[in-house]
Amino acid sequence: MLAISTDSIYAHAVFKKTSPSLRNVTYPLVSDRNQEISRSYRVLDEKAGASLRASVIICPDQIIQAKLIYPGGIGRNVPEHLRLLQAFRYEKETGKGIPANWVPGQPGIEKKAIDIGKI
């Protein structure tokens, strides 16, 4: 897990000291001052020169599995991030699909091949 922003490493240090939600964070805070990472993940607000508030979940095969972008004044939903990670694991372990509003402990659904020609 990484936290990446276009802020400087100095801004990260101050934010970590002053923000109760970041005080105990143990994962790296990465400075993307040249905006290369934000641009690559298409989360850069070119006009503002800063990255959007986004979360990108990448599988071990380096494929983006989910990208959530939040409006500036709205915080992330950490339980939803955890549910996504659990759903990805469940799908991988069982081969079953994940229905809407699924939570761990609920069954998945059988995946059926869809014949596009019949749609």
Explain what you see.
With 119 residues, this protein is of the alpha+beta class. The protein has helices at residues 9-18, 36-40, 78-94; strands at residues 3-5, 29-31, 44-45, 50-51, 53-58, 64-70. The protein has three helices and six strands. The protein has a two-stranded parallel ribbon. Strand 5 (53-58) and strand 6 (64-70) form a beta hairpin. The longest helix is centred in the C-terminal third of the chain and has 17 residues, at 78-94.
List key phrases describing it.
119 residues, alpha+beta, two-stranded parallel sheet, two-stranded antiparallel ribbon, 6 strands, elongated
Detail the topology: elements first, then pairings:
Blueprint: E1 3-5, H1 9-18, E2 29-31, H2 36-40, E3 44-45, E4 50-51, E5 53-58, E6 64-70, H3 78-94
Parallel strand pairs: 1-2
Antiparallel strand pairs: 3-4, 5-6
Shape: elongated
- SSE-based structural type: alpha+beta
Total beta strand runs? 6
Order of helices and strands: EHEHEEEEH
- Please give the radius of gyration in angstroms: 18 Å
Major beta sheet, specifics? 2 strands, parallel
- Contiguous low-pLDDT stretches (5 residues minimum) are none
Mean pLDDT: 88
In order across it, which strands form the biggest sheet? 1-2
Strand content: 15-25%
Annotation field: number of helices: 3
Helix content: 25-40%
Distance between the termini: 40 Å
